[in-house]
Amino acid sequence: MKKIQEEQLENQDIEIRLLVEGLYQKYGYDFRNYSQAHVKRRILNRFNLSGMKHISDMIHESIYNHKFVDQLLMDLSITVTEMFRDPTFYKALREEVMPVLRTYPSIKIWHAGCASGEEVYSMAIMLKEEGLYGKTQIYATDFNPVIIKQAKDGIYPIGRMKEFTMNYQKSGGKGSFSDYYTANYESAKLLDVLKKNIVFATHNLVTDSVFAEVNLVVCRNVLIYFDRELQDKVIRLFVDSLPSGGILCLGSKENLQFSDHYTKFNPLIPKERIYIKKYQL
Amino acid sequence: MSQKKRYEAIVIGSSAGGLNALKVLLHGLSEGFNIPLIIVQHISADSENYLIQILNDIRKLQVKEADEKEQPMPGMAYLAPPNYHLLLEPDRTFTLTIDERVNYARPSIDVLFETAAEAYKDKLIGIILTGANNDGSKGLKKIKDFGGLTIVQDPETAEVASMPRAAILTSAVDQIIPLEEIAPFLNSLTDMNPKS
C-alpha cells in the first residue's frame, strides 16, 4: 500500500510542477519559488472543485481557458487580509513611525502585495488622523489584476466591519471607524477621500523591478510564501527602493535575520518587525 | 539492526482541553527523548502564546513557536503560532501561511498532518488528543496511508471526546491509548532509536 501512495505522490508532484511551469511560460506568472506545500494545497483545492479527472488536465485548461486561469490565479493569490491586522503593529506604526514621517516634506509609501487593499486603507486612515495624508503618495501593488480592481473599489462585506472596528480601536484609532465608510445592507464602501492619494497598480514582486524611491515599504505576510532565494530577491528590491533611513515593515512572523541583506537594516521595533535602512558611507 | 522503525517526527493535534493533555503528555516523556514534536493546539487569534511558557516549564523538551523555514530538530517541541497555518515542505522545513481557515481553524491540524505525511511518509507518528470538532481526522488518515503510525487518545480519558471519536471513525488508527499511557508508549518506541 505504501508504495502506491508514494508513486501517486511522485506523479502528483510532477503534474503540479508542469502546471506551474506552464503558467510561467504562457503568462509570466512565476510560482516556481513559492512554498511547494502551499502551492500544492491551493492547486489540489482547485482540482477537487473542478471535477477534472487528472491534475494534468488543468495544464490544458490553464493554457486554453482564460476563465480557468483567472480562477487559478485567484487560488494562488494571498487574499486573506483585514483592516488594521495585528493592531499592535499599527499602534507601533502610529506611535513610532508617524513622528519620523512627519519630518519629511513629502511622503511616499509602497504597499507591496496589497491584495484586496484592507491594509492600504488602514494606512490611509491613520495618515489622515495624523494630519499627514495630504502630503503622502501611496503606491498599492499586487500581481493579480482582479484583486487590484477589488482593492481600488474598496468595498467589503458589511459583516467584517465589526472586526475591523475592533482592530481600529485596539490600534489607537482617534476617531469613529464608522465615519470612514458608507454602509448598505450587504457591503461597506470606504470613502473616496481615502483613495485620493493612492495609486493602485499591478506589479509582480517576482518578475518586476524597482519603480520608485519610497520612504516606507509595507509588505506583510507575503514573504512567508516564498523560498529563501526568492525572499532575498524581493528584499533586495526593497533595499533598492528605500533611501538610507527608509523604513521596512514585514509581517509578524517574518524576519530579516536569515536574509543576505540583513546587514543593510537595523531593527527599529523588533517585535513588530519594523526595520530601518542603515546610513552608509 | 532492530526490526522496529525509526521515527523521525511526531505531529500532535489538540483542541478543547488540549493544554492539560499536552502537559500530561510532555511530563511523561523520558529525559533525552529524541524525536521532534510538532504541535497544533487550536488557540484564539490574538492570544499571546502563553502555552509555550507553560509547556517549557515542564523541562522535558525545549518548546518554541515554529518559525518559517525552520527545520524540526530532536529534543525540541514546536507549536504552530496563533492565526497561522503550519505546513511542512518536502525538504522538511516549516512554512507558515495566513490562508483561509480549515475546519474553522487556523492553525488547522489537517493542514499540518497532511503536509507532514508527505514530508515524512512512514517515518511519522500522528497523535490526536482531546477536542470538540473533527479537525485532524483527514490528516490522520493520510499519515496512515503513507505508512506512518497513528495514535488517538482514548475518548474515555479526553476532556472533550468528539475529536478523538471522529478520528477513530476514519478507521485509520493503530493505537487507542489512555492519555497517561501515550508518553510511556512513545518512550518505548524511541528506546529503540539509535542515539544520534
Give an overview of the whole structure.
The complex is a heterodimer of chains A (281) and B (196). Chain A is α/β, with parallel strands linked by helices and 281 residues long. Chain A has helices spanning 2-27, 36-50, 57-64, 66-76, 87-102, 118-129, 145-153, 161-170, 228-241; strands at 107-112, 136-142, 155-157, 181-183, 187-190, 198-202, 216-219, 247-250, 265-269, 274-277. Chain A folds into 2 domains: 2-76; 87-277, Vaccinia Virus protein VP39 (Rossmann fold). Chain A has 9 helices and 10 strands. Chain A has a 7-stranded mixed sheet, with helices on both faces. Chain A has a 3-stranded antiparallel sheet with strand order 3-5-4. The relative contact order of chain A is 0.13. The mean pLDDT of chain A is 95. Chain B has 196 residues and is of the alpha/beta class. Chain B has a single domain (9-190), classed as Methylesterase CheB, C-terminal domain (Rossmann fold), CATH 3.40.50. A 7-stranded parallel sheet of chain B has the order 3-4-2-1-7-8-9, sandwiched between helices. Chain B starts with 8 loop residues before the first strand and ends in a 6-residue tail after the last helix. The chains are: A alpha/beta (281), B alpha/beta (196).
Describe this structure in a few short sentences.
Chain A is of the alpha/beta class and 281 residues long.
Q: Termini separation of chain B (Å)? A: 15 Å
Oligomer: heterodimer
Walk across the major sheet of chain B and give the strand order.
Answer: 3-4-2-1-7-8-9
Strand content of chain A: 15-25%
**By CATH's scheme, which homologous superfamily of the largest domain in chain A applies?**
Vaccinia Virus protein VP39
Architecture (CATH level 2) name of the largest domain in chain A = 3-Layer(aba) Sandwich
Q: State the share of residues found in helices of chain B, binned by percent.
A: 25-40%
What class, by secondary structure content of chain B? alpha/beta
**Terminus-to-terminus distance of chain A:** 63 Å
Query: Which radius of gyration of chain B do the C-alpha atoms yield?
Result: 15 Å
Annotation, overall tally of beta strands of chain A:
10
* Basic shape of chain A: globular
Number of domains of chain A: 2
Which residues of chain B form runs of ≥5 with pLDDT under 50?
none
